[in-house]
Structures are given as structure tokens and as C-alpha cells.
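Here is one record:
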Amino acid sequence: MKLHLILAAALSATCAFLNLATTAHAQIPASERAVLQALYTGTTGANWTNNTNWNGAAGTECAWYGVGCNMAGTNITTIVLDSNNLVGTLPATINNLAQLRIFEVDDNQISGALPALTGLIQLERFNARNNLLTGSIPALTGLSALQSFIVSNNQLTGFLPPVPNPTNALVAGSSSICPNPLTLATNAAWDAATGSTPWFNNCLDVGNFLVTPSASANGTMTPPDPQTVQPTETQSFIVTPNAGYVVGSVGGTCGAGSFSGNIYTTASIENSCTVIFNFVLAAAAAQNVAVPLLPVWALGLLVLLVATFGVMNRRGLVRPRR
């Protein structure tokens, strides 16, 4: 009986030891450790507000400040280093963190470009707002788990990329893009993701106005996207009807502008407004050309002349020429 108890205790102790040993030696891939080291080096990790345990021995990465791993300790799943005095650039290899779900480095002094994010198929939240980032926003293709994308208050430029495809999981109103000096272009999907219509409302410079053009079928205008205009300035568009069509009318809320050839220039802009170009068939436009009308006094004179001529003719005062 005692031997049975001793063997059971020994077996239990052996299992506990093996489990402890397995846990202690669990390690993330070398490629993921390299990403962490590049992040530390590229953002002056020695001067971070908190860099506890960073650059420790292999196998300790999950205990580094701001780093989280899966239960097995074999992959990085979260990096949260907001407000931690990160100064420098993000590593280009961040997309090697295939299991990363949360990446938050907001409220630091990170500069340079955003790295490529394709490959982060588990990424749910990306937050890099309130930094010094420049360049364009990278493609979000394949980020089917992404629910929140926040890059506001940087110096990002260029066009906004399409929302993640083929699956868009962005939660309505949970993303933030502006302010940034981006190229403004309407995008209903980003309107929904940011909860702002249009999404670029907060990207407009204070005191500037937005002129938004649109056109009916059978013609185009250039530029086709909304344009920022300073108060009292004008905005011009090159208007090009399709073959067989002409500009039928110009509507909108910007007031009456004028054409010079195929260039339309708005009136002085005093508020954000719209310009709407309507195209019609050239034949229809020709049929609708207004016939000039004589003023009332001229019509009266014409009637008097006709009447006088009639009276004179009846009295024989007007003789036909031979």
C-alpha cells in the first residue's frame, strides 16, 4: 500500500516537472523575436518610459513590457506600447507577426512610413494615432479580422486604401483617419467605418471650404473628387461631355459660375458647397434654344406699322411697283 502511494506521488511529481519544463522552454519563433528587437532598436527602446524585461533571453519575450502571447507562449498576439516615449520608426517586418491581434503605439513620436500590414490575418485593432507618421496608408487587403483602424493626427498623405477585402469586418464608427492631409475622395465604406459622412470631415483645414462636384451620365469633370478651397477663392473644373452630348445645365449650391471653353469656374466660395453638371443630347439642346423676344415697346411699334400699312393699302396710297 505504501509502495502504491509512493509510486503515485512520484508519477505526479514527474508530470508536474515535465509540465513546468515544457512551459519554461516554450519560445516564440526567432522571426517574431527579431521583430520585437527591431521595434526596440528602431524606436530608441533604451529611452522608453517603461522597457521592463526587453531584450531578455530567448523564451522571455512574453514577459517583456507591453507584449502578450497566446496561452502556449509560442506566438505574439498583442503589442501595447501607447504613451511610452517611442521615438523613431516602425520595423518593416511587422507583418511577420502572423498571430498578432492588437497593435497599439498611439501617443508617441513615431515617424516615417507605416509598414506593410498584409499578412496580419489575425489583426483586430491597429492604433497609431497621435504620432508623426508620413507617407501613404498601406493596403489592408486580406485583413479580414480587422475591426478598428486608427491613424488619426499624423501627416499621412495620398489616397485612402479600400477597406479590407474580400471580407470587411470594420465595426461601424470604430475607426479614425482624420486629421491627416490625405487626398479627399468619397468612400461610403470608410464613411461607415469612421461614423462620419464624409469620412474626411475632420481632415479639412480649419477655415477652408469643400467644393464637391458630381455629374449626371454621359459626361465627366476633372478633378472628380471634392476640393478644398480657401474663403473667397474659386474652383475650376474641366467639363467633358460624351460624344453627341453637351452641358445642359450646372446646378448645386455653389452659385452661378461661368464657362470659358470647356473650363467651368465657380463663383467666389463662401461656404462648403456642391457643383452638379447635367449633360443632354446635343440635338435636344438645339431644339430648346430660346427664340429672342422683342420688348413690349418694339412689339407695339411693329403692330402700329403693320396697321398703318394696312390702312394706306386700302386707300390706295400704296401702289405696287411695276
About this structure: The chain has two domains: 29-203, 209-287. The two ends are 155 Å apart (CA to CA).
